[in-house]
Amino acid sequence: MGCFATRRPHEIRALLDSDVSLEVIGDKRDIPNFLRRRGLAQPPTGISFFGERHRAYVKVQDGCQAGCAYCIIPKVRPYLQSRPIGQVLEEIRTLAHNGYAEIVLTGIHLGHFGIDLVPRSNLSKLLGQIITLTDRESLPLRIRISSLEAVEVPDELIRLFREHPKILCPHFHLSMQSGSDEVLRNMKRRWLSGPFLERCERIRHEIDRVALTTDVIVGFPGETDAQFQETCNLVRRIEFSKVHVFRFSGREGTEAVKLPDQIPTGAKKNRAVELQHIADQLRADYAKSLLGTNVQVLLEAAESPAEFSGTADRYLKIRVPALREPTSLIGKLVEVRLEGAFGEELIGRIHF
């Protein structure tokens, strides 16, 4: 499945060993029919288990029509499809009862959730329903949302996160890609740096110690040294707690692969190293800013008989002393008092 399978299914089939029985699914909406052809009379509408993972993922939306110059998705999945809210709630309920204490809501263009539903809905309404479900059934559960466009974070959504910090993780992953307006125009991004910065500042002002993370592409065709520095400056100004740094890599079928002034590999590597250094320092600074506070942690592993590790609501790795048998707390949400920092990792004690 996926973008490559949609664009070049014959190439995938040619690579398969003759003994492999497989079907290439060019359109994920065909999955129910695929399962019926395999003998499953009533295909499930959701996922119940994620193996040994302690975090579950619920995809609530698919498709994108944004048309960014570097992205193939609008060409292979140009439709917008949102799952009915009732179906999403049922999957979340099932996962919670199966022991998953953190659920991540995902989508190709999550900010467009609900615009195709009748009646029309949105991400804020979906989260409001999830909060109601969690409160009504006393589910030991928190929700994290995946990547959003900053300008698709309305005040209504910010209010929900401010008012329900135990259910909605105070963490926004906001796709920036570049801090240069000229590069953003060449990328065919729909919003420039000004609106992006305004939303980040609004979120930070409204939500206590919020974690802001992002994606950045360095070395987009035509990006000058000065434009790259604009990106570095904006990353510093927003003070992201984590930056995923990507070197531009052209994808066949996208507009960007045909653009002039492609950046040499060495220059892209150097820019990625420089930006990653800035990002690492910002992440360490953010970790230190949380010292002396309590955070909610999903305990995920026993690093040793004497130590647990897990992920904080603000998306940092936390280590805590093991105060009881590991199996009794692994997969659970606990309050941790943060007492020390080691780079981007934090050390604390469970606060009962």
Polypeptide structure, described:
Strands 8-9-10-12-11 form a 5-stranded mixed β-barrel. A 4-stranded mixed sheet has the order 2-1-3-4. It has 352 residues and is of the alpha/beta class. The protein has 3 domains: 1-43, no CATH class; 47-289, tm_1862 like domain (pyruvate-formate lyase- activating enzyme, Alpha-Beta Horseshoe), CATH 3.80.30; 294-350, Beta Barrel (OB fold (Dihydrolipoamide Acetyltransferase, E2P)). The chain has helices at residues 3-7, 9-15, 31-37, 73-76, 85-97, 123-137, 155-163, 181-187, 193-206, 225-238, 265-289; strands at 55-62, 81-82, 102-107, 142-145, 171-173, 211-218, 242-247, 294-304, 307-312, 317-321, 333-342, 345-350.
Compute the CA-based radius of gyration. 22 Å
The major sheet is characterized as: 5 strands, mixed, barrel
Give the class-level CATH name of the largest domain.
Answer: Alpha Beta
Helicity range of the residues? Answer: 25-40%
Number of discrete domains:
3
Percentage beta strand: 15-25%
Flag low-confidence runs: none
The count of β-strands is 12
Structure annotation, total helices: 11
What is the subunit arrangement here? single chain
Assign the structural class, choosing from mainly alpha, mainly beta, alpha/beta, alpha+beta, or little secondary structure: alpha/beta
